[in-house]
Design a protein that fits this description.
CATH topology: Ferritin
Strand content: under 5%
Shape: elongated
Number of domains: 1
Number of helices: 6
CATH class: Mainly Alpha
Length: 168
Amino acid sequence: MQLQNLHDLFVEQLQDLYSAEQQLVEALPKMANASSHEELRDAFEHHLEETRGHVQRLEQIFSQIGETPGGEKCKGMEGLIKEGQEVLEMQGDPTVIDAALIAAAQRVEHYEIAGYGTLKTLADHLDLGDAKSFLDDTLGEESKADKLLTKIATGGMFKSGINQKAKA
């Protein structure tokens, strides 16, 4: 693909995130199944449903701008998922494995937050108001998922989190 203008860049980045989200739809059930902590498993399952919604939003944006979701496989997400797969294959204390799953999941969330932030900015520059709104909604959900993972890892005010249990 040639990048001649911001619209070209927007489409390329949109295709990249579409691929990333599709890969995540396949990976999240495996992460949920590997979780021993119920709250973590629930968080992965909830985010899977959100991720399916993210794919639908991206498809709506493609439709609105007259483009297709095709493109190359997102290599960044592919690498992050491969690292997460390595955690799934590890043996050890279930709480420590859960902490490793959170670390892998947060890397994914941070990657997505960066991508959606970029797309939202491009949509704003291109006067794609509906797309910007969809992207803003997704960016909020990704940020919320990241914060929930942090909360699960560190615990709330009156309980210890996974990291504290893994330390023992």
